[in-house]
Amino acid sequence: APSLEELSNKLSSLGLKDPLPKFEGSNPSTNPVDIYRCYIADQLAPITGVDAKVIYPGLEWTSSFEKGDLVLAVPRLRLKGKPQDLAAEFAAKFPENPYTEKVTVQGTFLQFFFKAGLLSKIVIPQVLELEKKYGPAPTGTGKRIIVEFSSPNIAKPFHAGHLRSTIIGGFLANLYEAFGWDVIRMNYLGDWGKQFGLLAVGYQRFGDEEKLKNDPIHHLYQVYVQINKVIEEENAELVAKQEEAKKTGELLKVDPNQKGPTDNEARAFFARMEAGDQEALGLWKKFRDLSIEKYKDTYARLNITYDVYSGESMVAKESMEKAAVMMKEKGVSEESEGAVIVDFTKFGKEFKKLGKAVVMKKDGTTLYLTRDIGAAVERYEKYKFDKMIYVVASQQDLHLAQLFKIMKELGYEWADRMQHINFGMVLGMSTRKGTVVFLDDILQEAKDTMHEVMKKNEVKYAQVEDPEYVADTVGRAGVMIQDMSGKRINNYKFEMDRMTSFEGDTGPYLQYAHARLCSIARKANIPREELEKANLEHLTEPQATKLLRALAQYPDVLVNTMKTLEPTTIVTYLFKMTHLLSSSYEVLLVVNEKDREVATARMALYEAARIVLNNGMRMLGLTPVERM
Ligand code: ARG
């Protein structure tokens, strides 16, 4: 990014006298709107008698252009007098200037509209120069965040909750990284527990080395389903025996807690794992390693690479034991019927709803919650994070609230740095073949469906160079945009046909918008140096101005996204911007524009739009396509 000095020089070369003061949180060299904020705050200070530093943060962006580009709520200035009257007075006193139109008053708000002429000269060069860096400001430099996301369970389906966690978590990791944070992407696998004893026993009976190597995820799941069937059959047999015993009066001879032989075998196997038996652990490790390898490929299709594959199995016994001692000493935990529990109701009314949670079973074994306590401590010791996010479905709201409260009660000062990013359910997620879904299957089906949609337009399809790649990338965008369109907490219906459609606000629509801009650039074929020197005075049409105002907003949209942590904040913006683009094409011609200078100015505008769209899409985790 240019230095403040370079920027000041540039502004004066545009005929502007500009001190460009540096306000707290102001990033004029990456955010064009901040240039306007600096100017307006500076002008308003003598008019209102309020320090420019106080005015600056009050200059807020708006979500609709009718309200202006920036607004100031006069009551924020805490001045004596009627806000309406003050607003009218300030608006009247605001000087005529190259930055903004005459100030308008709406109730107690001052509305500032950017003047078209200067805007293009500020925004377009800034976007072209910063290119991939246009948007975020490096406000997180020196800070570290752990984003824990996806976290599927080995040998169990990758369900909708994991899909959403993967998409939302991948996006949040990108967002923090763009803002300069040191991001640790962490996958916390469900890779421990009694079910692994069961899986091992199942594998010994039904497993196939070859199948395991080729397709560990599906194969392990098959084995898991098969062995569970055996367990069910054995249980049914036991129940029948008990019924029989009841009838014959021989009840005493049958132990009601009796388990079937397979269940006992599974328990024994898991006990060996817990005791550190090398042979037992060897098999388990093989399952884990092969699954991770496979998952890595799938995550790569979503542009996600993890820094750490941790998991429930990796939490050290010592960490949990240490935590157990602390909990006891601090009176956080107590004994109850041989088990150790935390009774949250004792922490006051606010925590009543957290109820009670077991942290150690009667037989001394640990639970999901116990492992999370140990894991949090280990993560802090290892990474000294400034923030840690758990991207987990809202079904686990209670679990995470309990975890956070325990950490707080244990007195860890970093307990407040943990945050649960939750989300609603996906309804009706299934493939055509059945209801059990793995990530790979979802992506494959999105690709196939997309491919069919593309084939319907024969002429166009014939021109696509690599239809497999395009179908894959665009189909994936469909899945992801559908997921990120609403607020995270909302449920949504999984609709393959809808998400792969070009109609409406879909992933394919965004991809199409990007490919169209690329296509215009190819056809126009104007060298970059010419775009950089374009005479932007030619951008006079209202469509151009609206588009420019939208492009200027992108950095503010990102700042806002850091507050909401909602992908929809960006998705909504990108659709608004691409709609403006659609309505520009028939007015702002490039290829069919005879005046080369005019065509060049418009191309510079389109190129800036392409950069913003590309940046936004990549932030969301999509791969923008250049042709489709
Ligand atoms: N594996 C868990 C599940 O599938 C999600 C893990 C969430 N993260 C955590 N630290 N508890 O339900």
TrEMBL record:
Its EC number is 6.1.1.19. It catalyses: tRNA(Arg) + L-arginine + ATP = L-arginyl-tRNA(Arg) + AMP + diphosphate. Signal peptide: none annotated. Keywords: Aminoacyl-tRNA synthetase, ATP-binding, Coiled coil, Ligase, Nucleotide-binding, Protein biosynthesis. InterPro entries: aa-tRNA-synth_I_CS, Arg-tRNA-ligase, Arg-tRNA-synth_N, Arg-tRNA-synth_N_sf, ArgRS_core, DALR_anticod-bd, Rossmann-like_a/b/a_fold, tRNAsynth_Ia_anticodon-bd. GO terms for biological process: arginyl-tRNA aminoacylation; mitochondrial translation. GO terms for molecular function: arginine-tRNA ligase activity; ATP binding. It comes from the Eukaryota. Residues 224-251 form a coiled coil. Residues 34-114 form the Arginyl tRNA synthetase N-terminal domain. GO terms for cellular component: mitochondrion. PROSITE patterns: AA_TRNA_LIGASE_I (PS00178). It is an enzyme of class 6 (ligase). Residues 510-628 form the DALR anticodon binding domain. Belongs to the class-I aminoacyl-tRNA synthetase family. This is arginine--tRNA ligase. It comes from Ascobolus immersus RN42. The lineage of its organism: Eukaryota, Fungi, Dikarya, Ascomycota, Pezizomycotina.
